[in-house]
Structure formats: C-alpha cells, structure tokens
Specification:
single chain, mainly alpha, 0% strand
C-alpha cells in the first residue's frame, strides 16, 4: 500500500516537473492554455468521479460548490501568473519561487485558523525568505531566457526578470488560497473538488479561448503539448497525487515533493540551456532548504540551541 503511494507520488511530481516545458512547447497564450487545461482535465476527472459515484445530489451541496468555485478562481489566477513567470524568468527559477507555498500557507493558517507559528517555523521561513532575496537579485537575471534565446541586456531585462519572480510569488500565494478553501472542504472527495474547479475554469474562460490557434496547428507538437497539459498534467496528475496523499504520511509526501523543482531545474539546464548565476543557485538552495525544513519538521532551533550551549561551555572552560 505504502510502496504504491511512493510510486504514485514520484510519478505525480515527475509530471509536475515537466509542466513548464510543456507550457512553453504549446505556443498558446496563458488564457487559452488554462482553458484547455481545465477542459481536457475536466474530462478525465469527470470519468473518475462517475466511476466512483461521486456525482450525486447528496454530495453536491451548496457549501461544496461555493467553496470549490472560490478556490477554483484562485487556482486559475495561480496558473496564469505561473505560466507568465516561466517566460520572464525560467522554468527552474519560477518553480523554485513557487515552492514558497508552505510559508504562505503557514501565514494563512495563522490568520484564518489561529494556528501557532513556532520559533522553528519562523527560522525556516527566514531561510526561505533569504533565498527569495538572493533569487530576486536584479543583477542576477539569467543570461539565457526560458526559451533558450539570449536575453536583452540592461534594465529592461532586469525588470522583466524581477516581474517574473513577483508573478511566481503571486502564483504561490494564490495556490495557498486555493489550498485553504480545499482544507475548508475536508471530508469531501478531492477529485470531485478538482473537477468542480476545472468545470468552472472552462466555463469562465470559454469566451476568451483562441480555438482557431489550436485547430490551425493540426497534429503538431504545439497541439499535442496543449492536449497533454490537460489530460496528462492535470487529469492524470491529480489522480496520482490524491491517490498518493491517501496512502503516505505527510512527511513522506513532503520529502518526495521536492522532485518537482529539482526536475524543473534539470530541464532548464539540460534542454533549455538556461545559465543561472551564483546568486540564483544560492537562492534556489535556500528556498528549497527552508521549504524542506518546514515540510519535514527539521528542528533548527534545537541545533542552534545545542551549538550555543557548546560554545558557552567552551568559553567557560577557557
């Protein structure tokens, strides 16, 4: 049972790690791409919900629908900002900044549920925020952009890069809001919540979707990438992810989730020839370290207290 959960989580994170390059390969605008992701993802999730008997009057209550819709709006905006950030920074940088979600969720938990923020959480948050400072350094914008083309020099490139970092941070914040509303719906089937959000997204964005762009592409790499993003990176990924979360302990799921940014950074350097500065590598490492410390509950305060006690002991002996 647990072994299958590990496989499902690894598969889900591997799929997530390839979202960025699939977005860039699609050649679609952000709005059209989000529509197709919702539309094709909804078809897969609808099939699963029907098979499991999730769609019934007894389950589809007003509270479930209302909270799913609000969370869905946050999810749509989250995708929009994340996809925009891919183009302005790089897949690896945007994904790493996006992984500040645990910090934002902790802040929301404090504000909404009055959950206590411990000294340990505060220290790991400071580590991630320090990484965010390093990765946001305007003089450290990538020398190669997300498409593998040379970035224009000067202030415009720096401003574009910084805007991309802010968009990735906005995406992380909106994802945390979506997760908050999902948490308020605890006890309801997660697949059904995701389906309601996908249906909302497809309905809202239908008038703005560029159908001609996809149809004119025919059976091309761009069209395949667009369909894959909905079917594979949304429908299949959600099924694997929710299946894993039901079988694994929180710490196990959290530790495996770091495959996502690691794979995104690997794709950046291997396939897109993105060259990051030392500032950015330090920032990436600190953000992931802080997120890991929070997710895996590493006790940094105990380490610092022990070191302080040892130092005082040494001074006392001298």
């Amino acid at each position: 049972m647990k072994q299958s959960g590990v496989f499902e989580m690894l598969a889900a994170m591997a799929i997530c790690g390839t979202i960025g390059i699939t977005v860039l390969m699609s050649g679609q605008s952000e709005v059209s791409l989000i529509f197709y992701r919702c539309f094709f993802g909804a078809l897969v999730l609808l099939a699963i919900c029907l098979l499991r008997g999730y769609i019934s009057a007894s389950i589809l209550k007003p509270r479930l629908i209302a909270y799913s819709l609000v969370g869905g709006i946050a999810l749509l905006a989250n995708w929009y900002f994340l996809f925009a950030a891919y183009e302005k920074t790089s897949i690896g940088v945007a994904t790493t900044v996006y992984n500040t979600q645990p910090i934002i969720m902790i802040v929301l938990g404090f504000l909404v549920f009055k959950e206590r923020i411990t000294a340990n959480i505060a220290l790991w948050t400071a580590v991630s925020l320090t990484g965010l400072f390093f990765i946001s350094n305007l003089t450290a914008a990538p020398s190669i952009d997300a498409h593998g083309a040379g970035s224009p020099a000067g202030n415009s490139a720096d401003a574009r890069y910084f805007l991309g970092v802010l968009q990735a941070l906005a995406a992380a914040s909106l994802y945390a809001v979506a997760a908050l509303f999902a948490r308020l719906l605890k006890g309801n089937p997660p697949t059904l919540i995701a389906l309601l959000q996908m249906v909302l997204g497809a309905a809202v964005l239908w008038p703005f979707a560029d159908f001609g762009a996809l149809l004119s592409q025919g059976f091309t790499r761009q069209a395949i990438a667009t369909v894959l993003l909905g079917v594979f990176h949304t429908g299949v990924m959600y099924i694997l992810l929710y299946g894993a979360l039901q079988k694994l302990e929180a710490s196990q799921a959290a530790s495996l989730s770091f495959l996502y940014p690691a794979l995104a950074i690997f794709i950046d350097s291997t396939f897109l020839d993105v060259k990051l500065s030392l500032h950015q590598y330090v920032g990436i490492a600190l953000i992931l370290l802080g997120a890991a410390g929070i997710n895996l509950k590493w006790n940094l305060t105990a380490v610092l207290t022990t070191k302080g006690a040892l130092a005082n002991d040494e001074n006392g002996r001298n």
